[in-house]
Each structure stands twice: as structure tokens, then as C-alpha cells.
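FORM 7B: Structural annotation worksheet

SECTION A. Query
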Amino acid sequence: MALVNQAKREINAKIVFFGPGQAGKGTSLRHVFNKLKPEFRGALKVMSVQGARMLFFDFTPPGDGNVDGFRVRFHLYTVSGPLVDPAAWKMVLKGADGVVFVADSAPQRLADNQAALGQLVEYLKGYGQSLTSIPTVLQYNKSDLADASAVAELEQQLNPSRLVSFKTSSQTGEGVLQGLMALVKSVLTGLRAKGTDAIASGEALQHMVESPAPAAAPARPAVEAHPAAPASARPTAAPAPVQSPAAPAPSAEEEPLSLEIAGDPVAAGDLIRVPLTIRSGDREKTVVLTLSLGLSEE
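SECTION B. Predicted structure
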């Protein structure tokens, strides 16, 4: 679900690279990161999620990537590892605006591809989505290997919906950027059709990770939240604010502070850890906000 940041005049959209283990999801994401110019992308970050590695970064597409005068920033995510806990995938797919399904072209991985595709359909269904309702492209990876299955065979086995597909190699980069840019165009088309008035505002999601400020307290900077913390998570006590209300206001020469969610919240027992990025001008610092959950009687 794309989110509007009115303060920055940005729309934040989310794309997830999904597929079976060892198919090349992480390598594909890293290739995209390395090919984009630094002025168009943020830092590549890695976080441990349910024993697997979540990789993510954001970028703004060059050219006409605006919607109603708002710049669109895409957040790319994947979870890398031989086996990934379903809870991790569900968390990462929540609020996705587009999906790249990375299939392994090796003949012996056909069953793994089909199983992963079935999982993707199931997870999207849980959010009221499907492969045809959300922009999706297929990436037939490792197609440069000598024993790779023919594209026609992969299409027959994995693409009954006739989604847009690309023959790729995440090692050489063949087709990876082309597939992603096709998906980006599709997401942009959908956002322009809806318009900013129909896209959710990120401000309403702030209270899921931060308690409302008292009436007498100074206004907080806008929080860019993507994706939201689980709706069932409710802290028993408000977390300590990142910046004390008693701190002096920035001088005219100083850049104001901004606070952004740097990645998906990670649940561990009765704790939820939310990575946050604090920015002031060209300076930034990443911290982790830990929320303790519990049940209370009212």
C-alpha cells in the first residue's frame, strides 16, 4: 500500500523480490543497487528477521517518476536464505505495491518454484490481493546456465496468468533491471490512475510506533512509515521519544530533525524492534526503538 508523505511531497511504494531459496533474489536486489547512481538511491541495509536476512534500500526512478507533482520513492525488499519463516515473508509482503517473482531456471528446481509461487498466492490472498490485482513480473533467473529450462517450458509451468516475464541472470545482470523497470512503470501507472487523494497518508500510521504527543508539547516531525507495524501490536507503555521535548529548537543555521522508519518492525517474543533513521541535513543516525508488549485488564 503506497503512502503519501505530505511534508516531503513524496509517495512511498514498496516492491518485494519473492521466490524459492537460493533462486537469486538477494543477488538481483544487490545488482539493482549497484547499477543505480548514488544520487538516486539510499543505503543498502541488512537486518536479521526470523533467522533469515532481510535486504532493503530505496530509490527514486530517473525521469518522469512523479504522481500529481509528488515524487515517488520505491522501497525494494527481499528475504534471503535457504529457508525463510513464513512469518518473515508475510511481514515483508504486507503493504506491497508490486512483486518480482524470482524463479530458478534449473530443471530440478521446478517443484520449488511451484511451491514458492503457491506460497506467494496464499500470502497475497491474506491481504486481499492476487497475482493479477497487484503488479507482478516473473524473473526466470539463472537462464545463462547450460542446463537451464527453456523459457517456453517455464511459461507453461509457472505462468498460467500470462504475467510479464523476463529471462535473467542475476550474476551477469542480464534482464534484471529491465524486469524491475517494467514493474516500476506498472506501479506508477496504477498510482496515477488512483491519484494522491486515494493513496493512504503515512501520518495516520505514526501512532502505531509512537504515542501521541501531549497537547502542550511541541509538534513532532512527520514520520514516514513503510510498512506499518502489525495492527495487533499495542505497547503497554509509550516509548521514550527520540528527542526530548526539553531539547532546544534548532537555530536558523541548523537543519531540522526528521524521523523515518528504516525498515520493517521485527517481533521477538514480547518485544518489537523498530529501526529508525534520524536525519539532520546530510547527517543521519540509525537507532532501534524497542517496544515491550503485554496484556492489561481494563
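SECTION C. Observations
Residues 3-198 form a domain with the Rossmann fold fold (CATH 3.40.50.300). The first strand starts at residue 3 and ends at 5.

SECTION D. Sign-off
Analyst initials: ____
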